Amino acid sequence: MSVSKCSFVECDECHNLSNNGSCEFHSNGGNLGSGETYEQYQIIENDFINYIRYVPLNEQNHLKVHSPILRDIILRSCVQIEQFLKEWALFFCSEYQTYPPFFEEKIWKDYNSKNKKDEIQKTRNWSIGTYYTLKVNYFKDEYLIFIRPMNKCINPFADWNDEKNPPNWWNAYNTIKHGGKTAKSLSNLENALLSLSALFYLHCVNEFSRKSLERFSTFHVNKKFDKIELEYDSIKSPIDMKNYLFRFEENYPNKKIDLSSNNESRRNRSWVK
To answer: Maximum Cα–Cα distance for the chain, whole Å?
Structure first.
């Protein structure tokens, strides 16, 4: 008698399957939803924060400073980005998913048209261009990363315009990884900042990793004349520090409660978007 197993690709779990055929772990987003990928991000981020204590971000000429430490941060950040995007794509490739039309024509169709006996081989030739469909459908122009030490917003994926032309910092990563002639100068603070902020960006736009960060969301107090409003603050990182490095600019999740003292406000008090 055959034993049913989780229909998420590369998962052999055969106990406590849900109605859609997935195990509990993958029903909740797998590594992305468990917070495991964010823990990996925090390790890299902590190393970056330690570095910018000595080479501050708010000095423009520091962005071209290069060092072996920054090389290591770029390599680790981009490896995590690739793993994150692969895990996200595999989620759509799982047969139990109600996949979006763009995946039916792209990643999903390509994956499921191959020999199902060797799932690892199917993804061996995947590259950053494979995941461009994720960028098109999930990375909105209004989603930005605010960098507190620089007091500015950026979109680390802004220059990713087609499948064959990834962001410049990704090209720098490939050059560094393969030891190109310019690898040393490309191992700079700017590329480290962009690759790390890109990894943080992914955690904020993916529905599962984002949910794993919701439990850390805090309230922010707004005082407006005789009104006092509380609203959830945006996702920040490090999430346990007031002196955060990055903040996801979407006013997440943009809900407020009116704590005004006047009677009219008390009668009408409710959550509003």
So the answer is: 71
Which tokens sit at 98? 């109600």
Each residue of 89-131: pLDDT tens digit? Answer: 888 777 555 566 666 666 776 676 655 556 556 677 788 998 9
pTM of the model: 0.80
Backbone angles phi, psi at 57, to 5 degrees: -75, -25
Alpha helices by DSSP H, listed for the chain, are 24-27, 30-34, 36-52, 68-93, 101-105, 107-112, 119-123, 132-138, 168-177, 183-186, 189-205, 207-214, 263-267
Spatial separation of the C-alpha atoms in residues 247 and 123, rounded to whole Å: 32
Rounded Cα gap, residues 37 and 33, in angstroms: 8
CA of residue 179 relative to chain centroid, distance: 27
- The contacts of residue 273 (CB under 8 Å, 6+ apart) are 254, 255
Residue 62's CB is within 10 A of a number of other CB atoms, namely 15
Angle, helices 36-52 vs 189-205, to 10°: value is 150
What's the rounded Cα separation, in Å, for the pair 132 and 139? 10
